[in-house]
């Protein structure tokens, strides 16, 4: 019996686990209950070693093959954290915690990896070790980077690592993946413009920071349209603007901030340099002072070509060519990127459907990630778990790692 047939037998149990996690969401580095549940299930299912404490709430399980150990190790990763938002769904497994919600499907990702771990613990006809990595704080806090800083790769020397994220809009049963950049880098910026306050009826006696800010909001967009290469995608979005307290007073200062997304370091360097220059010079032109900060949060998620081709072969056998798609890069960000900077791997996207899977009592909004009406599609659990398990066993069966064969 193959992985899909086996894990499908556990579908009801896995669904219950997923919905339990969904009902009890925890934010980044606070996933105590979730990591306890993960560790408990790994222990029940006979995983050889269970390591806790990386990035505070992270869990790593080791599953050793029955064949003589050859030193090979492959990693499978899932994220566990929820988002700080209020759920609009009213079905029985809706969030029981006010202001917290699994609105990105990490509850499903965790459960898919649990299903894969259970299968691998029962089917050990491979040489080497599988490391199942349950990571905290993907949304905020860069838990992937913190796990690396806490010794993830030194303690568990994986030759490659794989992950998967659900994708609303792609039909359930289909999976998309492509080599190269698939998710953008995420950077945040803040600018405080200090002018000189005064009476709104006498603007010539003040230095009004508000028109400086509005000028910069527009000027920064010329970086996208006139400074970077036209074929390289990037986004500058000003998302906050705060100034003043009453209608007849010009404020002393104005603060604005937002996000920058790009796929290449070259483009990101250009954007940071030009934004800094414009902020400084435009403020000087108006007689104001600029305090500009630019923080690079997550790098771009870049799939390795050989590992992506390998994953595509696994998926071809699992779902067929008709259910394999090319993933169009999107401007969201992912801290799995930190792991892919260190070792080869691939991040794929499994279709979550159009939202028709949601139970009665769901919110009126669309079933999109980071939407209060979202819910993970439990029909994906056997497929996602089978994909991850198949990746690991096929990887450990290869005599030469894909990246080595490609060089």
From TrEMBL:
Keyword Protein biosynthesis: no
Residue intervals of the Peptidase M20 dimerisation domain: 188-279
Cofactor binding note: The Mn(2+) ion enhances activity.
GO term, biological process aspect, one: diaminopimelate biosynthetic process
Name used for this protein in its record: Hippurate hydrolase
Co-factor(s): Mn(2+)
Residues annotated to bind Mn(2+): 104, 106, 139, 165, 370
InterPro entries membership: Amidohydrolase, Bact_exopeptidase_dim_dom, Peptidase_M20, Peptidase_M20_dimer
Organism: Lampropedia hyalina DSM 16112
Key words of the record: Hydrolase, Manganese, Metal-binding
GO molecular function, one term: metal ion binding
